[in-house]
Amino acid sequence: MLVLMLAPMPVFAQVTELGVVPFGSVITQLYSKSLQIVGLAVFIMFLIAGMSYIIPDRFKPAFMKDPVTIIQDAVIGTILLFSAYVILNTLNPALVSIGR
Predict the structure, then answer these.
(1) Does residue 1 surpass a pLDDT of 60?
(2) What's the CA gap between 32 and 12, in Å, rounded?
(3) 22 in Cβ contact with 16 (< 8 Å)
(4) φ/ψ bin of 65: left (φ > 0), alpha (ψ from -120 to 50), beta (otherwise)
(5) DSSP letter at 20?
(6) How far is Cα 84 from Cα 77, in angstroms, rounded to an integer?
(7) Residue 91 confidence (pLDDT) above 70
(8) Residue ranges per domain, the chain?
């Protein structure tokens, strides 16, 4: 099946006059979107862990993990994301300049 794209994807909307998306802008936009997604995921995981901590053990489903483990996993994911920031900022600070 042949799919014809008539307009550039909204995520990669910065197209030069040659029609090529610069690699740096792709990395910047992917990092920006990942910040938003991870922030939302961490908030939801903290919410789930807090509700799981409040609800008594007999009402929890069997597959539910320990709330402390859920919070630890969310914090580890956040640390991984910010370590990616440190690495990208070390390589090229323009890659993580969001909104500038």
Answers:
(1) no
(2) 12
(3) yes
(4) beta
(5) -
(6) 11
(7) yes
(8) 23-96
Distance CA 16, CA 22 (A): 8
Cα–Cα distance measured from residue 34 to residue 71, given in angstroms and rounded to the nearest whole number = 19
- Integer Cα distance of 13 and 52 in angstroms: 41
What is the number of other CB atoms lying within 10 angstroms of the CB of residue 95? 20
How confident is the model at residue 12, as a pLDDT? 46
Q: pLDDT for 3-50, tens place per residue? A: 555 555 555 455 556 666 677 677 777 877 888 888 898 899 989 888
- Supply the pLDDT for residue 77: 85
16 Cα distance to chain centroid: 26
> Global pTM?
0.61
The total number of residues shown for the chain amounts to 100
